[in-house]
Amino acid sequence: MLEVTDLRAGYGQAKVLHGVSLKVGEGELVALLGSNGAGKSTLNNNISGIFKPFAGSIRFDGIEIAGAGSEEIVDRGLIQVPEGRRVFPNMTVRENLELGSYRRAKPNRARNIEHVVETFPRLKERFGQYAGTLSGGEQQMLAIGRGLMAEPRLLILDEPSLGLSPLLVEEMFALIQKLRSQGLAVFLVEQNVVQSLEIADRAYVMENGLITVEGAAKDLMNDEELRRSYLGM
Asked: Which PROSITE patterns match (predicted)?
């Protein structure tokens, strides 16, 4: 579904990605792991069309999208839930969700709202509240719900557990696993190594703009050398 090949990208003269290659298959949950500054968000933003890469290929459903506008990429069904939630604080939960279908799936807006509140029952309780009054965990649910409103074929989740309490982290990973069980392809970009590997099919480890390790998630979890050298476990 998504194939990134030898991607090189950065900002101005600063090079951040130095030839990144990875794949996400249909219905897969693939994790990209790495510390702050590894280049994970730069990769996300190039895949999503927010920035244009220096070189390399990004193919979605066999179609080249490197350098395409973010609106075209959204129209194709590749949706990113960005790091930091970025909900609209002075709009209600409902209004935030409705904005998620602005470019895609607008005719199915009412049906998709029902699907989102079934997936995240807490949002139904907060439907008329301003997003800025929600807790951190509720805002993250809202951000993911807003992404689901566009009927994604591939959902990119950038650090969804960031800033959440341990209890909410557990809940968030359970919700991500639920989305995957519904057949949605998910590209999970995270620093939370253990829980990401527990739910992922495959995983990549990024360091300094390079993929240094890749493989089945269960193999990475059980490889003692990788646990020590790359995962800090």
From this structure: ABC_TRANSPORTER_1 (PS00211), ABC_TRANSPORTER_2 (PS50893)
Question: DSSP string of 55-69?
Answer: EEEEEETTEE-TT--
Spatial strand order of the sheet with 210-216 comes to 78-81, 154-158, 185-190, 29-33, 202-207, 210-216
Residue 1: closest CA among 78, 75, 79, 80: 78
Report CA torsion sign: 92, 94, 100, 101.
negative
The CATH H-level superfamily of 1-77+184-233 is P-loop containing nucleotide triphosphate hydrolases (3.40.50.300)
Q: At what angle do helices 166-181 and 136-148 cross, to 10 degrees?
A: 10
Nearest to 207 by CA among 197, 195, 193, 218: 193
Q: Which residues pair with 58 in a beta bridge?
A: 4
pLDDT in tens, 110-153: 999 999 999 889 999 999 999 999 998 899 999 999 999 999 99
What pLDDT, in 10s, does the model give residues 76-112? 999 999 887 789 999 999 999 999 999 888 999 999 9
| Tokens at 186, concatenated | 């998910």
Q: Summarize the confidence of residues 188-200 as an average pLDDT.
A: 91
Taking the C-alpha atoms of residue 144 and residue 140, their distance in angstroms, rounded to an integer, is 6
